[in-house]
Amino acid sequence: SEKQAEKAVHQKKEQSKTKCRKARRRHINLVAEFNHRQRKNIWLETHIWHAKRFHMVKKWGYCLGNSPTEKSYRACYRAMTKHCLLQDLSYYCCLELKGKENELLKQLARICSIDTGLTFQEACCLSGRFEGSLNLYRADRYPEDMLGPVTFIWKPRNGSENRQLWIWVHPALKQDILRELKAIFQCSEPEEICITEPVTTSIQEEKQVEILTSLGNKRKREDKEGEKAVPVKKIIGDGTRDPFQSYSWIARTTGVTISDRSMEILRYRLIGPLSHSVLTETLKAASVQTV
């Protein structure tokens, strides 16, 4: 009995050394783990939520929720038919085009055709009121050499001839479509030489996290030095681009700029009869102040 009592006391001491759940799930530890784990496969902003409720798969350089666990099927179906179901489509890649409207439309007409339906110059889409969808082809090669389907949104006009266009493509198609866009607009020179620091080089940040974790409660959370050492959630680049590569190119002749905005602009899809009411309750119009 004495040996059992000593053993129980020894086990209690070992358990006391391990951190409690609250300490393990402190914000500083969660963010450090978030940054560390997406070195191989990029995580979406909603990754942790999905990882608890979905079977995760590694595709196209991302870690995505593929199918819900058994307990989630009825909830998802109920939300889709009676309420509102939200899907995170942020793994889709966003290519941004900036330049004069006539120059953009002139070159974009080479990679699509009116025979397939709407084009980039459709009035309802060109005004920025509606999103358009079409199939892209290699320049002047229609109906052969199809690149794949895309969706696009024009930024509404502001009175200037300079326009902004966002093209959303599947990550499996991004490299081919980006290469074709750079070719037709002759965007070869990188616009920005400074390349964003990748997640893989944040060793110093991890050391700071280890120091903070080891100090525990000795350092106050309100301390200014402590705030500087707390890491920020990083989602740099995407599954289809190396962090050291350029992400923006410019054509010196026309001034057209192509930028890879993947993982910089989040995209969600709402399905269900209450989708509109959810949006109206969530989004509030900003008060525009005129000087």
Automatic annotation (TrEMBL):
One of its GO terms (cellular component) is ribonuclease MRP complex. Residues 4-99 form the Pop1 N-terminal domain. InterPro entries: Pop1, Pop1_N. It comes from the Eukaryota. Pfam families: POP1_N (PF06978). GO terms for biological process: tRNA 5'-leader removal. PANTHER family: RIBONUCLEASES P/MRP PROTEIN SUBUNIT POP1 (PTHR22731), RIBONUCLEASES P_MRP PROTEIN SUBUNIT POP1 (PTHR22731:SF3). This is POP1 protein.
